[in-house]
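re the bet — no i am not wrong, look at it urself. input seq straight from the record:
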Amino acid sequence: LDQQRPLARDPVDLLALATADVGSARATYPDRLVEVVALPGETVPEVSGDADRLAQVIRNLTTNALRYSDGPVMVRVGSHAGTATIEVIDHGPGIPDEEKTAVFSRFYRSDRARSRESGGSGLGLSIVAAIVSAHDGTVNISDTPGGGATVTAELPTTIP
């Protein structure tokens, strides 16, 4: 996170942002399906935040999911108990339980991702964690049913 640039606090429509921002991931992986959906039956609230940085969260998570899985990637946006949620779901190899916290550390690369040829510097998820934290939110990883990883960022719908 660029500490020199103050965090903007503007109304951000996460569904519109996600829909617009997955275009760069689609351009990098044109043969792969990336779907953006709202969680069923829910109105996605606006959050008060920095649209550019929140777009970076979506872009980093989507690109990571496409890089490390072979199947489609889904970006789901919704709300739950006063928080707005962004979920990026893949059906790749998943992340071992013992690495689910470590992957958010700077320069961390799991064994299957250590090769420079595979791309990445080990900063993408640490940037995601820093941006989400700066928005008073949390980010975590869980297993996708059937295999893969689901990364969930939760952001308060109102930020002081």
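see?? The chain has three helices and seven strands. told u. also The beta strands are 10-12, 34-38, 47-49, 73-80, 83-89, 138-143, 149-156. so pay up
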